[in-house]
């Protein structure tokens, strides 16, 4: 969205010198030239003048445009994305999370090539992400501090400082964000190029929408390969750091009650007979269970993770309920209380087994999308600081993953350009590693 101010060039008779003026006799004065800028009258032959705008007017135009855009952004945040103004919008935390997500999709949604980000898009991203992140400057906490008095004594007062989670994670995310943009800027002069999607090989039909990378006939040079490997290594480290921050923020969010309200209270129904029987058996080995599961696709794996995650929290909830109920009883030696304690211990054991299975699945498949619990936490979260950290780390994680995927595509294209010979003399090609968007 852009706005530009314009004014009609005025003419005056008999002017022979420079003048910066506003005609008071005009019935409709030029508000733009009077308030926001000054116009310079240059004398020409024949007694006519031409109006030339001062350079400061362009700067004012740019400033006004940014102010109008900022007003629009914060109006949507205050209205909670409800443009009717009827108060049916989302909370501030979800509004900021959605704004950061939509901004990232607008700027980085079509990152299909290894090339520097367009300067206009980069300017839009830096400006608008700065507006959204500035909300965190006002999220503070009170801490005690010792101050010196003029008489030489001391007193303890409460001062404000940035909230601990924001103070620890937000500067790190900004640094990782700058490193990712720097990695993209490093692909200015390259030996490879791209052709539009069209003629793609059979093994790449799952990426038919992406431009096809092309390399020289002799392959990439050693220097270019080294740069690619170095960029991939740095991007992978950034990806791990952003994932760690995102996981820690999601772990700190409270589990919304709506998540449990939509579930039945039967762990067997969620897990299925086979997984439930393995978890409740006398001997349990999560690695063996993972090997026996049908995890041939990402969708199937995510489905199993969701089911196990539900069972973990249902068992934890039952364990807490049994423990609270047993402590509230006065007759601690009765058989009823002993039964409650035994049931609580069993729920605790089954929850730990399900958690170990969940950790094994996450280690085996580290690039899984968000689970149902994660999406429920984001949707019902009320903490603005956590919303900023979660959405900012999530979009940086997505950007790092996409950069790695584009580097892997290019490395695969370079390897495929050099046929490999097996021991039998049959020509083969390397198998491309599939990446999850």
From TrEMBL:
Residues 1-26 are annotated as: Disordered. Keywords: Guanine-nucleotide releasing factor. GO terms for molecular function: guanyl-nucleotide exchange factor activity. It comes from the Eukaryota. Residues 57-424 form the PRONE domain. Residues 1-20 have a biased composition (Low complexity). Gene3D superfamilies: PRONE domain, subdomain 1. The keyword Mitochondrion does not apply. InterPro entries: PRONE_dom (IPR005512), RopGEF (IPR038937). Pfam families: PRONE. This is PRONE domain-containing protein.
């Amino acid at each position: 969205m852009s706005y530009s101010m314009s004014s009609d060039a005025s003419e005056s008779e008999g002017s022979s010198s420079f003048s910066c003026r506003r005609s008071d006799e005009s019935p409709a004065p030029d508000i733009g030239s009077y308030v926001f800028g000054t116009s310079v009258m240059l004398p020409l032959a024949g007694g006519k003048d031409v109006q030339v705008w001062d350079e400061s007017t362009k700067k004012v135009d740019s400033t006004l445009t940014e102010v109008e855009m900022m007003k629009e952004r914060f109006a949507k945040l205050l209205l909670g994305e409800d443009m009717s103004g009827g108060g049916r919008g989302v909370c501030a935390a979800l509004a900021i999370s959605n704004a950061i997500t939509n901004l990232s999709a607008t700027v980085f949604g079509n990152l299909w090539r290894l090339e520097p980000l367009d300067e206009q898009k980069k300017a839009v991203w830096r400006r608008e992400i700065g507006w959204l992140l500035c909300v965190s400057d006002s999220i503070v906490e009170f801490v005690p501090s010792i101050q010196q008095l003029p008489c030489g004594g001391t007193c303890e007062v409460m001062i404000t400082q940035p909230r601990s989670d924001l103070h620890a994670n937000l500067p790190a995310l900004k640094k990782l964000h700058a490193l990712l943009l720097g990695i993209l800027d490093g692909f200015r002069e390259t030996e490879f190029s791209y052709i539009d999607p069209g003629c793609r090989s059979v093994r790449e039909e799952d990426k038919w929408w992406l431009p096809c990378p092309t390399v020289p006939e002799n392959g990439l040079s050693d220097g270019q390969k080294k740069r690619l490997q170095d960029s991939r290594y740095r991007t992978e480290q950034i990806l791990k750091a952003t994932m760690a921050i995102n996981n820690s923020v999601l772990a700190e969010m409270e589990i919304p009650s709506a998540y449990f309200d939509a579930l039945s209270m039967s762990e067997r129904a969620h897990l299925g007979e086979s997984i439930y029987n393995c978890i409740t058996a006398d001997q349990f080995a999560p690695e063996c269970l993972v090997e026996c599961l049908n995890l041939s696709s990402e969708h199937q794996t995510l489905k199993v993770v969701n089911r196990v995650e539900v069972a973990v929290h249902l068992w934890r909830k039952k364990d807490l309920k049994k423990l609270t109920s047993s402590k509230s009883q006065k007759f601690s030696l009765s058989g009823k209380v002993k039964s409650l304690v035994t049931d609580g211990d069993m729920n605790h054991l089954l929850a730990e087994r399900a958690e170990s299975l969940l950790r094994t699945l996450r280690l085996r498949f580290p690039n899984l999308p968000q689970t149902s619990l994660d999406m429920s936490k984001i949707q019902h979260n009320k903490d603005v600081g956590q919303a900023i950290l979660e959405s900012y780390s999530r979009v940086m994680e997505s950007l790092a993953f996409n950069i790695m995927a584009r580097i892997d595509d290019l490395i695969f294209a370079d390897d495929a350009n050099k046929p490999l010979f097996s021991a039998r003399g049959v020509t083969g090609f390397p198998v491309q590693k599939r990446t999850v968007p």
